[in-house]
Structure formats: C-alpha cells, structure tokens
Amino acid sequence: MFENFMASIKQPDRRKAFWTLLAAKLLGVAVLVLLIKGLAFYFSTPALADDAAAPPPAYVNPMNTLWVLVAAFLVFFMQAGFMALEAGFARTRETVNILLEGIVDTCLCGILFWAWGFAFMFGAGNGFIGHQYFFLHGAPDTYGGTGVAFLAFFLFQFAFADTCSTITSGAMVGRTGFVGDLLYSFGVSGFIYPILGHWAWGPDGWLNTIKPAAFHDFAGSTVVHTIGGFVALAGAIALGPRLGRKFKRDGGGMPPGHDMVIASIGGVILWFGWYGFNPGSTLSAMDMQGCGRVAANTTLAACAGGLSTLFYVYPRNKVWDCGMTVNGFLAGLVAITCPCYWVSPLGAILIGAIAGVFVVLAIDLMEWVRVDDPIGAVAVHGFCGIWGTLSLGLFATGEFGAAGPMGADNSAATVVTGLFYGGGTAQLIGQAIGSAAITVATLVVGLALMYAVKATGTLRISKEDELEGLDISEHGGPAYPELLGGSTGYHVAGDAPASAPTGAVPAK
Asked: For every residue of 449-503, which 3-state class applies, written as one string?
C-alpha cells in the first residue's frame, strides 16, 4: 500500500489532489476547533447585556420556588383541557389533528422559548424587545428580585406561552394543514407572543411607564388571551370558513360538537388549571392573603360567567345549552385573569357575569361577519380578554398594591384604584392604551403571518382532503377506528360521509 502511495504521489496531478485534500481537511479541523472554543467561551461567560433593574436576591426562596413550580404544572396541564375542549367541540374527522397539534405545539414552543422566546420577553433590552438570556445563557440563580429559581420561572412562563399558541388553533380547526400549523406556531411562539408580551411584562416594557397610569395585566387577559384570540381571528380570516359552513344570517348556524362529554371535561380541566394561572402569578407563597384572594376571585368570576351565559341564552331556543355554558365560565376566567389581584369578590362576580353575556354577543358578531370559529376562541379569549383588561380600570378597589416576593406591597405608590372606587379615569385610560396597542399590533402582525403562510400553499388543505377529513388525509387514521367497521375511508354510519360538505351536522 505504501509503495502504491509513493508511486502515485510522484504523478503531478495525483500529488496536487493529495495536498489539496489534506489542506481542506486541516482547515475543516481548525474551523471545528474554533467553533467548539467559541461556543465554550459563550456558554461559560456572563451575558454582555446589563442585568435587570432589580438585583436578584442572594438566595433562592424555596417556598416561592416550589409554589411557582406547582403553578407551572397546573398551567401545563391546561393543555389536556384545551385538547379535550377543542376535540369535543369539533367533529370526529379532525380529532386526531387537534390532539397532535396540541402535542406538537407544546414541543415546538418549549424549544423556541428556550432558544430566544424567553430572551425576547423577559430579558433586559428596550421598551419593545429583550436581548438577554438567549438559550438561557447567563442565567442567574433567581429571576430578578422574585426569589424564584430562574429555571422555575422559565418553566412557568413557558406554560403561559404554550397556552397562547394553543388558543390560536381553536379558530382554525377542520381546514388547516399540519405543515401550515407548524409554520404559524413558529411565528406565534417564537416572535408574536414574546415580543408583544415584553411590552407589558418585560423588565423595561414601554407599557409599564405610560401616563396617566401604568398598564397592569396580572396574569394575562391581554398578554396571553387577547394575543392568542386575535391571532386566531387573523387565522380564521386568512383561511375562510369550512366547506359547506352556513352562517346564521344565511339560514344556517354552528354545527354542534361531536362529543360534549370530553368538551365539558376539558373545560373543567381548564378551570382547574387556572388556579395555577392566576394565583401562581403572585410568584410568592409568602403572599398568602393575595393568593387566597386571587383564587377566590377566579372561582367566583367563573361561576358568574357560567350562570349568566346559561340564563342569557335560554330565551333564544328554550334549551339549557351546555356548550355555551362551558364557554361562559371560560369567558369569566379569561376576564378575571387581569384584575384578579386588585378587585373584591363582588367585583369578580360582576366582571364574570358581564363576560358571560359579552361572550355570547361576541360569538354572534363572528357569525354576523361570517368568520368561522368552531371553538369560540376569538370570542372567549380575544374579546373577553379585552373586557377583563378594561375592567381593572373600573373595579380595582384601591386597597391592594403590587405582589412581592415576601408579601404584598400595599404602599400608596403601588395601589391600583378604579373608576367605581374613586380612582377617576386614569387607570381605565392606561388599561385602554395597553389593550388597544397590543390588540391592534397582534391583529396586524397576525394577518401578515397568516397570509405569508397561506402564500406557501400549506395553510389550508385541499377540498378533497377537507371532505375526507384531516385525520385520514393528514394523519393516516381516524380517532375512532371502530366506527369505520374495518374500512380505511370516511364513510361512517351516523357521521358525515366523504361526499358531504364539511359543515354538515353529524348525527352522533
């Protein structure tokens, strides 16, 4: 072998090829070594960005950290609620699609929020975007002055980001291609939610300093629900209605969901998860009165929302509507999410009751403008998120200030007072400015995102695939194979046949 090599190296063309190949390999090794050294340097040195304004405490508060972790687990469990709720309100033919979207959206959101979403939202930067903690690099022991372990805070906020992304899919059920879902989820989780969320929740977000009063959103009526709801509206507009969908003004109406059992259970799971969403946002187990007040207000608003929807809808068709009642208590939960820390139990009941009526009117509006929202995501999360945000400027009692790591700060400088409690219109104006800014920005950017995805040809499935059903065309099998009697098609007794329009009402 050596003799063959020496013989071939004497030939000029072979010798040139040998030295060229050797130089290329040495160059590749050098580049690889430099890359490894560079990454090691980057991930082993502090971030170059300035630390957040509030210096972190010298220790991790174990009680607060445990409290935030438990709350994070509760909020994460809301994904099961969303999957069940959406699947139950939808038709059998898109059940697998809804379940897989919920799973994959969660996985995708987790990686994106680790890579740059958390940095955009909670890193120090400017009033519009953060630029600290990319890939969680340079993370201190605790986040800011919360006393909560940094990664526990990250996990809690990831669960919020995942909720926003999942809300979006509710209005796009039944006709969205799976690749299109991945593309818009990338945009929502990676950019829209964290950047717009920074405006309100970032350490230097511009809505924290507006006049005449700073914008407040305790647990996300605007930051989570309005953003999710109005991106959902953008998606529904870009998609158009499902095939065969007739709206109320055209003599039709919303097709009923295929399984109110799992829809109702999913709604109650969401209610349960909200006890992580709202009380967990205190970030402090030491603020025992605040946690108790928030939990009670959350419960009362949900109860009032469910009852007001039930009794408001009954005169229309003389039946006690389960699906609308579920959306009613969810509307109450969405609305109380912003003001829950600063209002009284009576205020929570009034906020929830108004939300229960408001959600019905918002659903009617979507029917009137012919926007097909199978789950009611726009009405429940988008419009009731706006109402909940504004309600703080009306019902804040003037008794409570800011939540802190060791308890509430009820000093005069932090107390929030609404119009009905002698605070004038200052807080209401601040809430209106913040809500309008984020709502308008969300809708504009959401429409741009959805039409960009639509331009790729992946947003909406073909007519043939939509008639066959997403579960078959996109995922290779139905959620209920025993109904098919061994067939691989969609011809199911008691359900919409493959040749029927997608909007047909199933018998089951």
From this structure: HHHHHHHCCCCECCHHHHHHCHHHHHHCCCCCHHHHCCCCCCCCCCCCCCCCCCC
